[in-house]
Amino acid sequence: MTNADPIELEKFSQLAHKWWDPNSEFKPLHDINPLRLGYVDRHAKIAGKTVLDVGCGGGILSEGMAALNADVTGIDLADKSLKVAKLHLLESGRQVNYRKIAVEDLAEEQPGHYDVVTCLEMLEHVPDPQSVVAACAKLAKPGGWVFFSTLNRNPKSYLYAVLGAEYILNLLPRGTHDFARFIKPSELAQWCRNADLTVSDLIGMSYDPFSKVYSLGRDTNVNYMIACRKDPE
């Protein structure tokens, strides 16, 4: 059984043609990409390193990392999103190796292969996020970096990420997120420890609806990112 939700895959497939439209439903991803990219690069210094982007979608983060001279592989299970990602390379001239494969299967194929593994905005969309965390850890080299981002589970995150973003501000299509699948930082940190990852940093991401600007900070109540190191052998 593949660790994927067919409904979630279809949801993103229906929007796949809009991945690279910065004014579409994917506008928030375009807006936060410089923040995510900068956070990963500050910790991992990705130039010249082998990087895996798990749940790459249309390739927004993958191409950003390739632009910083990383050797990037992007994986996803949504055919239409991968087709869009590959087509966009013709326009951008970037080099990214895109593959349709589950992260668990790739972990069996290439254990300990990557200097850096990113899995951003994906854990809340899969049936077994702990399995994804374990696979990402397995794919990283000893001493390598692994990054996750997801949504916290509490009343504030429901208010902001579901009611606010989907129903009031219309930043995201309604039904994008299932609150029951949101993940507390303590839960994610435990999964990381179970997978022999050491948490190095935890940072929040906030959105100001008045200035329409995203920023990184210490408020992890809604969106947050976590940076981990793979324990040496």
Brief descriptors of the model:
eight-stranded mixed sheet, 8 helices, 233 residues, alpha/beta
Provide an overview of this structure.
The protein is built from 8 helices and 8 strands. It has helices at residues 6-14, 27-44, 60-67, 79-92, 103-109, 129-139, 155-168, 185-194, and strands spanning 50-54, 71-76, 96-100, 114-120, 140-151, 197-208, 213-217, 223-230. The protein has an 8-stranded mixed β-sheet. The radius of gyration is 16 Å and the shape is globular. One of its GO terms (molecular function) is 3-demethylubiquinol 3-O-methyltransferase activity.
Layout of helices and strands:
Blueprint: H1 6-14, H2 27-44, E1 50-54, H3 60-67, E2 71-76, H4 79-92, E3 96-100, H5 103-109, E4 114-120, H6 129-139, E5 140-151, H7 155-168, H8 185-194, E6 197-208, E7 213-217, E8 223-230
Parallel strand pairs: 1-2, 1-4, 2-3, 4-5
Antiparallel strand pairs: 5-8, 6-7, 6-8
Helix pairs in contact: 2-3, 5-6, 6-8
Mean pLDDT: 92
Total number of helices: 8
Largest sheet: 8 strands, mixed
Task: Outline the low-pLDDT stretches.
Answer: none
Summarize the structure.
With 233 residues, the protein is an alpha/beta fold.
